[in-house]
Design a protein that fits this description.
Residues 1-21 form the signal peptide. Keywords: Signal. The chain has one domain (5-158). It contains nine helices and no strands. The chain has helices spanning 8-22, 28-34, 49-60, 63-75, 82-94, 98-118, 122-135, 137-143, 147-158. It is globular and about 45 Å long.
């Protein structure tokens, strides 16, 4: 499935529900499979299973599952919604690949915010904020240690 901005609202809302569940329980994999987020209206018709599956593997999968998602994303980044980029950034950061993580996090933030600005649903902007809060603190703290590197990275993200 090619990345399409008009499906952002649905995938962001699902990712937010998943991210919120991840922060409140000890076993995120169990919550991901147990909690559901029902989409309404036009969003109920949007295909989000790939995004949900990838984020689920990153949050509750094995090391091999996580590696598969990261490798797939690196090979075809345009095929994934911003929530997957946010989640992969966390996986990379935890693996010590902090510069790569920062690039993906800020790319996800830029894509998500651009898409949110196109949406007529105000909750989409709120979802971007929640995802940024969920995945960003460690990366932001890391990047603030070297502002020259941060400036170079931002130029790469915008390119």
């Amino acid at each position: 499935m090619q990345y399409r901005p008009h499906v952002l609202a649905a995938s962001l809302m699902l990712a937010v529900a998943s991210a919120m569940a991840q922060t409140t329980v000890a076993n995120p994999a169990a919550v991901s499979s147990a909690k559901t987020f029902l989409l309404q209206g036009e969003y109920a018709q949007i295909e989000t299973s790939n995004t949900r599956a990838m984020v689920g593997l990153l949050h509750g999968g094995t090391a091999a599952d996580k590696a598969m998602v990261v490798d797939t994303l690196v090979q075809r980044p345009g095929k994934f919604q911003p929530p997957v980029l946010f989640a992969v950034s966390q996986t990379l950061f935890q693996a010590g690949k902090k510069d790569d993580a920062a690039f993906l996090f800020y790319a996800a933030q830029l894509r998500a915010r651009m898409d949110a600005n196109l949406s007529t649903d105000p909750s989409v902007g709120q979802a971007v904020g929640i995802l940024s809060q969920r995945y960003g603190p460690q990366i932001n703290q890391y990047m603030l240690q070297d502002l020259d590197k941060a400036q170079q990275l931002m130029a790469q993200v915008q390119a």
